[in-house]
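Problem statement: downstream parser choked on a complex file, so we are re-checking the raw output for the fe (ii) ion run. The parser issue turned out to be on our end (a line-ending mismatch), but while we're here, posting the original submission so the record is complete.
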Amino acid sequence: MKNNMGNINFSEQLLSLWSVENMLVEKMPSMMDKASDFGLKKSLALHFEETRQHRTAIQLICKQLDIDLRNTSPNKQLQNILQEGERSMEGKQGGDLDTVIIRTALEVEQYEISLYAEAAEMAEAAGYKGIAGRLWLTQEEERQSETKLKFFEGLLLKETAEIGQSIAQYH
Ligand SMILES: [Fe+2]
Ligand SMILES: [Fe+2]
């Protein structure tokens, strides 16, 4: 099966998503632990639960389509985002660390949003209506997570600006 963006195969796309969601289920808890803002921590924890459901959904779709999930290779692009994020987190704490966590998580969500949109379109093109519906639903949850992260990013920027202002008042 080929889509109109080249010869990306639907089952390869599902295998990418399987790798992505697995990696995230593995890596998200340490990001949650590192976050210091309570709201951010809680929001990451909620999305972690959704991420586990995303993984199960992909597993069920692959089972339905008879796609073998053994011996899948890790998704390079997500690996790079996570490695880059971990490098940037080193030596940081508090608000600075939260900023890097948010930036990394935003990159992850944006990547997931594009992967899910492509996968859902491929499912539609192949006539798998139910599967497409589930993939769009997941994509919507990734979008909502992105929106929440942007909210926390805005809060942090505002706090940093206010701290800057109050320091300036004393000089
Ligand atoms: Fe996800
Ligand atoms: Fe996500």
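For whoever reads this later: Residues 47, 51, 109, 112, 142, 145 surround fe (ii) ion (ligand 2) (CB under 6 Å).
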